């Protein structure tokens, strides 16, 4: 059942747990949870978000998973976190300091978990969190320790510049380059 308007408002500023496991190939990183994701406890859960269909179309998982199946990701060598942990209705509600603090937290998390690739889904968030104002979609020159960095398009339905097929193709480029 979909969250009610009251559920969504109650989810403001809530956090959801990271999806982690040993030996991750790719740790996906969203900008921050939507109110819908926080209300359900599942990453990229808002209807219209293209993360889950793109993940399947890219060949990273053998079938389309539902957000409620996020617990299956570590078995595929995949995990999910966010740059900023707190849920908002829109990413533009976040302050630049939150992104910078999130980038520092991500560096610590990556040092602990040591995925092969950190894939940040949102170039604007990546630019601020990692102080890389000229960053573009795709592989990045820098690393965090031995972890490669890749910037993916934001899969939100609000990101009309990227189609589902183009997002899946970029995820497929990551898969081909690193797995």
UniProtKB/TrEMBL annotation:
One of its GO terms (molecular function) is hydrolase activity, acting on glycosyl bonds. It holds the Pfam family UDG. The keyword Kinase does not apply. Keywords: DNA damage, DNA repair, Glycosidase, Hydrolase. SUPFAM superfamilies: Uracil-DNA glycosylase-like. InterPro entries: MUG/TDG, Uracil-DNA_glycosylase-like, Uracil-DNA_glycosylase-like_sf. Its EC number is 3.2.2.28. Residues 17-171 form the Uracil-DNA glycosylase-like domain. It comes from the Bacteria. The keyword Transcription regulation does not apply. This is G/U mismatch-specific DNA glycosylase. It comes from Microbispora maris.
């Amino acid at each position: 059942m979909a969250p009610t308007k009251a559920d969504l408002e109650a989810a403001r500023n809530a956090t959801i747990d990271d999806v982690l496991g040993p030996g991750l190939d790719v740790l996906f990183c969203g900008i921050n949870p939507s109110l819908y994701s926080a209300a359900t406890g599942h990453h990229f859960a808002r209807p219209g978000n293209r993360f889950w269909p793109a993940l399947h179309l890219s060949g990273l998982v053998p079938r389309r998973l539902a957000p409620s199946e996020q617990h299956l990701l570590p078995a595929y060598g995949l995990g999910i976190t966010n740059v900023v942990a707190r849920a908002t209705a829109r990413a533009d509600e976040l302050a630049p300091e939150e992104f910078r603090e999130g980038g520092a937290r991500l560096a610590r998390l990556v040092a602990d978990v040591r995925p092969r690739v950190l894939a940040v889904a949102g170039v604007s968030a990546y630019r601020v969190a990692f102080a890389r104002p000229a960053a573009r979609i795709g592989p990045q020159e820098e690393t965090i320790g031995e972890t490669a960095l890749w910037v993916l398009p934001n899969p939100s339905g609000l990101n009309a510049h990227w189609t589902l097929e183009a997002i899946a193709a970029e995820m497929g480029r990551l898969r081909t380059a690193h797995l």
